[in-house]
Model the fold of this input.
Amino acid sequence: MREKLKKISDVFKLIFGYGIMIVLFLGGLTFFGYLAALFIGGETATNMCTWIYKSFIPVLIRATTILILFGLVTMYLGGEKALTPGKKNMHEEGEK
Done:
């Protein structure tokens, strides 16, 4: 059973990693959309900015939320404990 959970965790980790990379890249592209709108100006720029803000960014936020859930499930299935002090971490910081 543990091996199946590890395989599922590895697949989810792959989905999470590539998905977050794509979402971050697309989020960075919004900067160039706004920059292009700045140079174009006028009604076209207003339409571009409105589309980015009202259509594109909400999709990115939803995709990021789903990918974060994949990351949390990956941690849970893999038995990872993030943000909790362990014996190793406590010893490195001088606590006993």
User: Anything to note?
Assistant: The mean pLDDT is 85.
